[in-house]
Amino acid sequence: MTLRLVVVDDHPIVRDGLAGIFALEKDIDVVGQAGSGPEALAVVAERDPDLVLMDLRMPGGDGFAAIRQLRERGGRPRVLVLTTYDTERDIRRAMAAGADGYLLKDLPRDQLVAAVRELMNGSPRTHIDAPHGSQLSLTDRETDVLALVADGLTNRAVARKLGISEATVKTHLAHVYTKLGVLDRATAVREAWERGLV
């Protein structure tokens, strides 16, 4: 069965790049593209996709509103956020609006494709952002950051300890949240501990 996908991003080059990635997959068919939230709603109504790959911040109507409206319609499609915005607030807003998963645009191509397949195969909501499932691994730096967070250090303290900026700490934590499928520090620490990652 072929998965029908709609790509939503306000940058045409990004849409084309994503379409090119999925064009290499025999079981995934990009049936439409959109450059804004309202346009996405129209394309979804016309093309009836299984999954929407949704950017969040777009001129003319953002992804948050589009996700909410898609959920209000009920039924398909599922929504997987793909964005550069990695703040806890954005992640919480997207998931609260009804997104089924949240990924960052620096995710490697193979992991993006794997995440899409996992979501459509019915993986639990809290794990759809972790393409490798039980084989999930954190980078050394992500592990260092998470271990210090587990010790109760603030982002600023972690940054000083590791000799990096506070913004970099936040980025590492956002990647950890995405990999673990969680939305906050406490849950990330617990999930990582249960998986033996820290």
From TrEMBL:
Entry-linked PROSITE patterns: HTH_LUXR_1, HTH_LUXR_2, RESPONSE_REGULATORY
Domain Response regulatory: start-end pairs: 4-120
Signal peptide: none
The HTH luxR-type domain, residue ranges: 131-196
Modified residues annotated as 4-aspartylphosphate in this record: 55
Keyword Protease: no
GO biological process terms on file: phosphorelay signal transduction system; regulation of DNA-templated transcription
Keywords, comma-separated and alphabetical: DNA-binding, Phosphoprotein, Transcription, Transcription regulation
Entries under InterPro entries matching the protein: CheY-like_superfamily (IPR011006), NreC/VraR/RcsB-like_REC (IPR058245), Sig_transdc_resp-reg_C-effctor (IPR016032), Sig_transdc_resp-reg_receiver (IPR001789), Tscrpt_reg_LuxR_C (IPR000792), WalR-like (IPR039420)
Keyword Cell division (UniProt): no
Gene Ontology terms, MF aspect: DNA binding
Name the record gives this protein: Response regulator protein vraR
Protein encoded by which gene: vraR_9
